[in-house]
Amino acid sequence: AEWEEQLVLALHRLGRASRLAPQNLFSLNPDWERLHRIFHRALISACRSQWLVGFCDQLSDHAYRYRQMANDGEGVQRDDFGEHRLIAECALDGNADGAVEALLNHYRLTAAMCMKRFEQDEETKEIAGKRARR
To answer: Average model confidence (pLDDT) for the chain?
Structure first.
């Protein structure tokens, strides 16, 4: 089916792209970000609801800053391609429950990385505040 071909091609292209920008290793590569969006769009493209696809595009736009933040600095390591491969494999195998669980884990890891970044920022502020009081 066309949906399967789109998903396999999107996964292949995403896997060949570098997540990090070559000129700034603390920033997402714009090409990777574009391919990432194409992958997630391909994943839901067979739903036949333009409204849902549009809504997911809006969510992706709003989540961009958090993906960027999750990438910024030290924190949890991840296997981006492995996460996306698992999501795609489950979807292509017709394992909806597995695909949903893999997608939720993908989102949860991004959220955990953001929380780690927030904690690092708070620790930095506390240290700066203590130094200022000396």
So the answer is: 87
Dump the DSSP string for the chain.
Answer: -HHHHHHHHHHHHHHHS-SEETTEEEEE-HHHHHHHHHHHHHHHGGG--HHHHHHHHHHHHHHHHHHHHHHSSS-----HHHHHHHHHHHHHTT-HHHHHHHHHHHHHHHHHHHHHHHHHHHHHHHHHHHHHH-
Report how far residue 122's alpha carbon sits from residue 116's, in angstroms, rounded to the nearest whole number.
10
- Domain positions in the chain: 2-133
- What does the pLDDT average to over 35-59? 94
Q: What are phi and psi of 61, to 5 degrees?
A: -60, -45
- 74 pLDDT above the threshold of 60: no
Q: Which CATH class is domain 2-133?
A: mainly alpha
pLDDT at position 76 = 57
pTM over 0.85: no
